[in-house]
TrEMBL record:
Enzyme class: transferase
Protein name: Glutamine--fructose-6-phosphate aminotransferase [isomerizing]
Gene name of the record: glmS
Catalytic residue positions: K357 (for fru-6p isomerization activity)
UniProt keyword list: Aminotransferase, Cytoplasm, Glutamine amidotransferase, Repeat, Transferase
Protein source organism: Aliiroseovarius halocynthiae
Superkingdom of source: Bacteria
Amino acid sequence: EKGGYKHYMAKEIAQQPTVVGEVLEAYVSGDQITMDMGGINFADVDRLSIVACGTAYYAGLVAKYWFEHYARLPVDIDVASEFRYREAPFAPKTIGLFVSQSGETADTLAALRYSAGKVDKIVALINVPESSIARESDVAVEIHAGVEVSVASTKAFTCQLTSFAVMALKAGHDRGHLDDAGLAKHLSELRQLPGLMSHALTIDAATKAIASKLAEARDVLFLGRGQMFPLALEGALKLKEISYIHAEGYASGELKHGPIALVDKVTPTVVMAPHDGLFDKTVSNMQEVMARGGRVVLVSDARAAEEAGDGVWQTLAMPEAPELIQPILYAIPAQLLAYHTAIAKGTDVDQPRNLAKSVTVE
Ligand code: F6R
């Protein structure tokens, strides 16, 4: 049931502070991680091979940044439909990690079967414990998002990310890159998520105003750098899925290697840029867009918005947040921009054309 919301998507966006809180409840207790991974100790692992499709793939892409940064653990990541056929050599001490909300995505399941026997362990990050992908894995880690009805994935994405954050911190601790104090610090950052997500949901009205303008665009660019790059991809995917506006996500630094040719006076560029160590570089990418008459929608916190200076077309003000949780928090503006743009265009938000909730053909 929609419980007073106009669409399942709106309800599922609003549920995120609660369900993310439930993920933390399931996997963190005080300063300790309680996530049971069937006895896996990441000190004995040399490589992770993450495989998924669509939004689940973007969650894996954020996780790659985290595992490499917090645990110094190398990560390969592929979309499932490519992974199976490129005949990648498997290195010893590799864990195969398959991410799927439905647990029934045909390509992801086929990639899992292909990897069985070739990797040390098959781990699945899933939302449906009785699904095929959960059943065929050695270790199934639940994301605790609850039933997701809307075709466009929202709360499953943030629950995948939160579960991955815990897993990356466990890996960092197992591998000796995070000591007890470091782990405790990052766990307390994760605990800020439900509160900060509730705060981020209050940008709903501001998002609606910007979305009414995005609805007139033919193309929209999304930019992000570092761990925010996958959020640019996710923002673009969500927008095309439900509003049918052509959108592309790029790593900010790739702008001048091609996509800047798309920038003109009517093409909005959404920049997902919390204040972080790379912010100055992002500002210069934004200035390149503005110098060509492009309209920049800056999604950022107050401090960064001030540093960005004049010339920004629209700003969405997010709460300041520790770096670790920024990609999780910024899923909310990505989702709300797509949602309100779709409403402004009058499309079928929960059942977009040509799409199915579970893709069971390859
Ligand atoms: C996007 C979306 C899809 C799914 C993809 C994988 O909003 O919902 O891109 O993320 O089809 O689905 P699962 O996670 O069920 O394997």
